[in-house]
Write a structure and sequence with these properties.
Layout: H1 2-19, H2 26-48, H3 55-78
Helix pairs in contact: 1-2, 2-3
Length: 79
């Protein structure tokens, strides 16, 4: 479960960077959104692998998938 916890923390960390309201640089924002989508996919994959054994892993996998989709939607919107 350590890799699962690690990827969950990475997902949260990239989302924290995106939530800062201290300025805007399109290139940095795009790179961080791409990183967030990547780490959310990894987290979702990791949690899905044992979601049938732990309810909290199923919930985490769903949240990671939603975050991944949101990031991909933002990237599409940025063009």
């Amino acid at each position: 479960m350590t890799p699962c916890i690690r990827t969950t923390m990475d997902c949260a960390a990239t989302a924290t960077v995106l939530s800062r309201h201290t300025g805007y640089d399109a290139n940095i924002t795009r790179a961080v959104i791409e990183a967030c989508a990547t780490v959310c996919k990894a987290c979702g994959d990791q949690c899905t692998s044992h979601a049938d054994m732990h309810e909290h892993c199923r919930v985490c996998a769903e949240a990671c998938r939603c975050c991944e989709q949101a990031c991909n939607g933002l990237l599409t919107g940025l063009g």
